[in-house]
Structure formats: C-alpha cells, structure tokens
Amino acid sequence: MAKRPVYQLAELAINGGKPVRKKSFPSWPIFGKAEEKALIEVLRSGKWGIGGNKNVEFSQAFAEWLGVKRVVTCTNGTAAIEIALKAVGVKPADEVIVPAFTFVATASSVLSIGAVPVFADIEPETYMIDPSSIERVITPKTKAIIPVHIGGGPADLDRIIRIAKEHGLRVIEDAAQAHGAEWDGKRIGGMGDIATWSFQSSKNLTAGEGGALSTNNEEIGEDAWSIMNCGRRKDRQWYEHFVLGSNFRLTEFQAAILLKQLTRVEGQMKTRDKNADYLTKRLKEVEGILPVTTYARTTRHAHHLFIMRYDKSAFGGVQKEKFVKAVNKEGIPLAPGYTIPLHELPAIRNYSLPYVKLDYSTTRLPVTEHACKEEGMWLHQSVLLGTKKDMDDIVEALLKVKRNAKEVA
Q1: Residue 257's beta-bridge partner residues?
Q2: For residues 110 and 172, what is the distance between their CA atoms, to the nearest angstrom?
Q3: DSSP structure class, residue 48
C-alpha cells in the first residue's frame, strides 16, 4: 500500500494548493491498426451499408459472446429500446415500469412509441430498480418492465422475472452499461424477453454510436429485425413491408469497428476487475464513501461505472456538488452522476400524449431522489483501466478533501 502524504489545512487544489495528481487517466476509446484496417476494408469494398457482411459477422460474434440465439444491430441504444418495446407488443397507452435513476432514454423511448413510463424506486445499497417497488406500481395497464443494469451490475433478474411471469409482463433488459456482466455465471442478454445494448462513445464496447438487441426468443428477434429494417421480412420481397418499422440500420463501418473492439473486451474487463477490487478495499479507509453493493448471484460486474455513495455528514456537511468539484481539482475525474431523477426532468414532466394524461407531480421516489441529489457519484470505466498507483491517487484525493473539508467553500 502506498505511503500516505500528510496534508495541511488550506492546501486543497480548489483553493490554490498543489493537486494530488496532474497526470491524466487512460483515454477512451482504445484502438489501433486492427480497427484502421477494418475501416479501410469496408471503405474499399464500396458496401458501406446494405449489401455488406460486417453487420452479419458482428451480430453472430456478439450473439456467441453473449450466449444467446439472436442479435439484431441498430443505430443506437435509444432506438434499441424503442424497437424492443414494439417487438414485445407494447402499444400506445400501455404502461411500462422503469427506474428513474438512469439515462433519459429508458423512459423517453417509452414515450416515443406512445406508451406511459411508470417509475419505480431503486434499492439504497445497489441503486438497482427495487422489485418491491415494481410490484407496488403494477396496474391492469402494465405491459412490460425495463430493469436497467446500472453501472454494469445486473439487476435482480430472479425476482424481476418472477414478478413478470406472475403478472404476464414482458421484461426488456436495458444492458447499455453492462457488456460482459454475468448473473449466476451466465452473461446477461438473454434472460428477459429481450435486452438492449448501446455502443455509444463512452460504452465498454463502442463504435462511437450504435446499438443492438439480443434475445433467445426467435419470434421476438424476427420482429425486432423487421422493425429495425423498415418493416421488411427476410423471406419476402424487398419493397414488401409488413409492420410500421423504420430505418434503424447500423453502418458497415460501425460493425467493422465493433468486431475488432469485441476482441479487446475480455482483457479490459480483467483490468477493470482488478482495479475495482483494489479500489473497493482501499475505500474502507475513507469513512463516508461506500461503493454500491452487488447481489450474491452477480458473478461478474461490467464496471462501466464505479458508483459510490457519499455521506456528507462524514465530510463536515459539504454538499455533494462541492465535494465533487474539490476532488476534481485534485486531478480525479469524479462525476456527480445522475443529478435529476427522470420523473423530475422537464422533458418528461412537460411531455403530453393525446390519449393519456401524464402527471408525475405526485410521484415520490425517496431513494432515487436522495441518490441523485445527495449521495450518488461515480468514476467512468476508463479510469479503471489505469494502474494501481492511479487507484491510490483516487483514495489520496478523497482523503485529502476529507481532512480539509472545512476549506471547501
């Protein structure tokens, strides 16, 4: 363990003192000659979209890696959720249960197809959607549940799937942050009815943008492919359309990058695993900072985010926002996470549907609201691709701010 330096009062970097570190953490994405060669291959082929084979190759490779029967690629993770909702039969005015501690797309996708997002709370220790809260908001109009594998740890799939079966509901796993995560030794992506993926710039598997759906249900997989591809069917004529789909096709350039990026994921996961374990152990030295916990059946965490819970009472009452800024000045890219619950976002609260009155003014999600406004913060996955010394610097910065908390304005 690294020897801790002793800091004096008024030496915080936010007040002009010397920061713990000036060196940057690993950049993202990571790429090389393999990706360059793959892009040139697609460029020279002249088949940049329809007619190429990279989408087919990646779909098969990703399906094999996940251990599922079917993968359908698409433009992005938001489109993936919209496609999934339609593929499992969600219709306008149907209700879909979602958490409010997640990216806006989990709920906005529901609204985009004319359905109604109903918000469930999260668990205080895991930040995962709370199955008990799910049960409390089920109504005769409920058609689906979207558990989000937030940060890269699986939600409580056993309880959620059991609840869904009891009520005849579909389960759409939002796995945008969970590439490679495992539940009971099995990679997520095929346990619910369908799972959605994002390959956006920050994701652990990325092509800048892009998305996919995975499923073990062939019928749902076929419907998802049709919706993604303008309502076509594979065994029928090109200009014969069967459902009101859209053009959500992924380009061959993106698929080519993803094929090469997929070969890097396992090695990167091992590095994140090692650093996350070490950082978790060292954080025991910092009273008031607790990493979120995982379920016993979580056999692997994707570590897209290293989410921590901040207790301001251990830091002299310093508000989360000010604490994060102080740590940032010490050279640590700590982020405040989701600061506004989805049910409080103007984009959600001000949205209107022609046939349903939306009103979230009385929605109360105390755990989610506390996590957003007071407690939740995180480090991005690329930070965990650093060295043991990088992890030590994170802890030293937290300790430095803690010892000098009264200097935080």
Answers
A1: none
A2: 12
A3: S
* Cβ burial, residue 291 (10 Å; 0-12/13-18/19+): middle
Residue 238's pLDDT band (cuts 50, 70, 90) = confident
Residue 157 host element (H or E) = helix 157-167
- DSSP one-letter string for 337-386: ---S-GGG-HHHHT---SSS----TT---HHHHHIIIIIEEEEEGGGGGS
3-state secondary structure of 28: coil
CA 171 to CA 163: how far, in whole Å? 10
pTM above 0.90, yes or no: yes
Domain range enclosing 325: 265-407
Question: 194 and 270, same structural domain?
Answer: no
Given 261, 279, 298, the domain boundary residue is 261
Kindly report, residue by residue over 257-294, the tens digit of the pLDDT.
999 999 999 999 999 999 999 999 999 999 999 999 99
Residue 183 lies in a domain: yes
User: Which 3 state secondary structure label does DSSP give 305?
Assistant: strand
pLDDT band at 4 (very low <50, low <70, confident <90, very high): low
Give the total number of structural domains in the chain: 2
The bridge status of strand 170-174 relative to strand 194-198 is parallel
Based on the fold, state whether residues 144 and 200 are members of the same structural domain.
yes
Q: How many CB atoms lie within 10 A of CB 320?
A: 20
Q: Say if residues 360 and 85 touch (Cβ distance below 8 Å).
A: no
Residues 282 and 179 in one domain: no
The per-residue pLDDT for 26 is 97
Whether 401 and 311 share a structural domain: yes
Radius of gyration of the chain from Cα atoms? 22
**What is the 3-state composition of the chain as percent helix, strand, coil, each rounded to the nearest 5?**
40, 15, 45
What pLDDT, on the 0 to 100 scale, is given for residue 9?
Answer: 47
* Region for 68 from its dihedrals, namely left if φ exceeds 0, alpha if ψ lies in -120 to 50, beta otherwise: beta
pLDDT reported for residue 235: 85
| Residue at which a domain ends, from 226, 261, 296 | 261
Residues 335-361 have pLDDT tens digits of 999 999 999 999 999 999 999 999 999
Q: Report d(CA 93, CA 270) in Å as an integer.
A: 44
